[in-house]
Amino acid sequence: MSVVTPARIGLLIDYLDDDGGYDENILPSLQLVVDDFLARGLLERPVEFVVRAVQGLPNGTFRAVRDAFDELVAEDALVIFGPWVSENGVALRDHVEATAEVACITMGASETMLGEWVFGLPAGSMEEEPIIMATVAALDGARSVGIAFEDSLIGNEYLRTTRVACKEAGLRITAEVPIPQVQAEKGAAMKLLAVERPDAILHVGFGLGIPGMNDALAEIGWLPPRYTTTAFEFAAVSDWWRNQLAGWIGLDQYDERNETAKAFLDQFEAQHGRRPAYFFPVYCYDVARMMLLAIAGARPLTGPGVKDALEKIKMVPAASGAPGTRLRFGRYIRHGWVGSEFLVARRVLPDGSRTVLHATIEGLIEPPVTP
Known about the structure:
About 35% of the residues lie in helices and about 20% in strands. By secondary structure, it is of the alpha/beta class.
C-alpha cells in the first residue's frame, strides 16, 4: 500500500512571549478542525503542521521572519498562517510576491501587507479600528481626546487613520504624544496628555507601549476613560497584562454571544478538558477552516492551487466577532471579514479580574441582568 504524503501547512509565528514560547492553544485549535474535516471526509490526505517560531519585529529582527518564510516554502508548505505582526508583514510582502509559490494568511492589521499572495484575516485593521474606537468613545460621551501613539510604523499608520476617525466622530484632539513601542517610563508623556484634561485618552499601536500608563496617570491624579485598539487583546495573555489594562476599553474579536464560537469551545472543552474562552483560539478556528477549505478545494494540490481555492471561499460563519460575522475571500478581495461587528469593544474591570462586553460600532451593550 502506497504512503500518502501529508498536506503541509506552515505556521510562521513571529511574536514570542518572554519565555520564547507561544500560545498553547494554537495547535490544538487548528488540529480540532483537521480532525473534523477528516472525520467528515472533506480531506483526501492527512495534514501536517510545520512550525517556525521566531522573534520578529518589534522585539526581534525581520531577517528571522524572512528566513522562516523561506524555510516553510522549502518544506513544501501549501499555505502559511503568518506572519502575525504588521511590521514584519509589510516588510515581507514583496518577498512573498516575488517568490509566488505559497499564499500567506496574515493576522496583521496593515492593508499595505496585502497582495496577490498575501491574504488578510487581520486581528483588527488599521483603517477600521480607529473608526470603531472613536465611535465607541463618542457613544460613551467623550467630546475631546488626547492620543498616545507608539512611535513606530504601526503607531504612525494608526495615528493617520485615527485623526480622520476622530473628526468623523466629532472628537476634538487636544494632543498627540509619541510613546516608545517598548516598555519605558510614561510619566512625561502622560503629563503632556493631561495639560488640557481631555475627556478620554486614545492609545494606538501594537500594545507594548501601554504598560505603565495606568501607574503614570495615577501619579498625576488623572485617570480618564482610556481606549485602545486590538492591543487590548493582550488582556487575554496574563493577569499582569489585565492589570496593566485595568479600566481600559479596547477592541477584541471574542464575543460570548457568537454561537459558532460556543460550538467550537464546546468541542475543545470536550476533547481537552479546558475552555479557552478568549479571542485567539476562536480566531485560530476561523483561520484553520479557511486554510483547510482551500486545501480541500485545490485543483491541483499546489501552492497556486490553494491560492485559487482561497479566492472561491464565500460566506463561512465566523467564530470571531459578533453573531452574524462571516468569512470570505475573492479574486480581488484580500480582507476576509464580512460584517460591521467583526470587532467588538470589551473592557477590563477596574480590579483587572476579567473582561466584559462593552459595545460595538452599532452601539453600547447593556450589561446582563443579574438574577
